[in-house]
């Protein structure tokens, strides 16, 4: 890996794309194709993905799969390959699990807060009107979301969204921590965008599925920019708890926001 080569980079992409197909594809098949639990615990009453001209191929599922695999898995693999190349050439600081087990565990504990905080702030930037129109709108075409919507983004957004892994290039960590970081950022959205609160097998909970906090963001847009792992939305007044009062407040904020933009005049 000291020399960049498609001989070892392409297998990384193929592995990552296969994992995405397994996770996002498996959830889509269970929830939407086979309707494994019908509408039980589904946030949105609709079951079928949209077919309209706003999506590539005029089909929401194919659109989401294309952006997730062609762009998402590619950018994910590029970050991973860049780190492994830098690691092989001694360009990034690392720790040894044997010599620093406490630091290794601290990394695992800090990672959710770090990624949640990064997501909040870059997400706010992505809602800046020029960047939203050219980049983030690709993701927000999905109002009725499903597992493939999670990583359906413009390539520029993939670069920004996954840029939190750059911390490992300057702060000593471990290659396993880097992989956990990338897997959680790249495969986690399939769960948080599944559209179902829980996955059930014979009416018994199999695992927690969608993130209601982020579901509300796709419904109202100007709220819940982060995740519940860090309190930024509460601190900056963008938190929506699902109540009618919060919905009215967010709608009023949106009205004021769009009324004050020059393009609205």
Structural topology:
Layout: H1 6-33, H2 60-88, H3 101-126, H4 129-140, H5 155-161, H6 175-192, E1 198-201, E2 204-208, H7 212-220, H8 232-235, H9 244-260
Antiparallel strand pairs: 1-2
Which features does this protein show?
mainly alpha, two-stranded antiparallel ribbon, 265 residues
Helix content: 55-70%
Separate helix tally: 9
N- to C-terminal separation?
A: 55 Å
Instruction: Write down the secondary-structure element order.
Output: HHHHHHEEHHH
Percentage of residues in strands: under 5%
Tally of extended strands? 2
Total domains, how many? 1
How large is the radius of gyration? 19 Å
How are the strands of the biggest sheet laid out side by side?
1-2
Could you give a short account of the major beta sheet? 2 strands, antiparallel
Uncertain segments are none
Q: What class, by secondary structure content?
A: mainly alpha
- Residue-averaged pLDDT, rounded? 92
Q: What general form does the structure show?
A: globular
Q: Oligomeric form of this entry? A: single chain
């Amino acid at each position: 890996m000291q020399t960049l080569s498609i001989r070892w980079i392409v297998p990384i992409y193929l592995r990552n794309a296969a994992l995405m197909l397994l996770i996002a594809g498996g959830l889509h098949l269970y929830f939407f194709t086979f309707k494994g639990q019908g509408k039980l615990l589904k946030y949105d009453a609709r079951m079928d993905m949209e077919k309209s001209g706003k999506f590539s191929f005029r089909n929401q599922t194919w659109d989401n799969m294309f952006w997730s695999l062609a762009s998402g898995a590619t950018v994910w693999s590029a970050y991973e390959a860049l780190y492994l190349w830098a690691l092989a050439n001694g360009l990034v600081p690392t720790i040894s699990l044997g010599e620093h087990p406490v630091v290794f565990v601290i990394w695992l504990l800090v990672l959710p807060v770090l990624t949640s905080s990064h997501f909040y702030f870059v997400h706010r930037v992505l809602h800046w009107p020029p960047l939203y129109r050219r980049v983030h709108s690709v993701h927000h075409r999905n109002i009725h979301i499903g597992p493939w919507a999670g990583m359906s983004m413009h390539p520029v957004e993939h670069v920004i969204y996954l840029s939190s892994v750059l911390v490992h290039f300057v702060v000593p960590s471990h290659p396993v921590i880097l992989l956990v970081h990338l897997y959680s950022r790249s495969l986690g959205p399939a769960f948080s965008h599944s559209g179902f609160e829980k996955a059930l097998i014979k009416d018994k909970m199999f695992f927690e599925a969608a993130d209601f906090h982020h579901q509300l963001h796709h419904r109202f847009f100007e709220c819940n920019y982060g995740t519940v792992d860090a309190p930024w939305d509460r601190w900056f007044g963008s938190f929506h708890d699902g109540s009618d009062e919060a919905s009215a407040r967010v709608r009023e904020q949106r009205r004021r926001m769009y009324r004050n933009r020059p393009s609205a005049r």
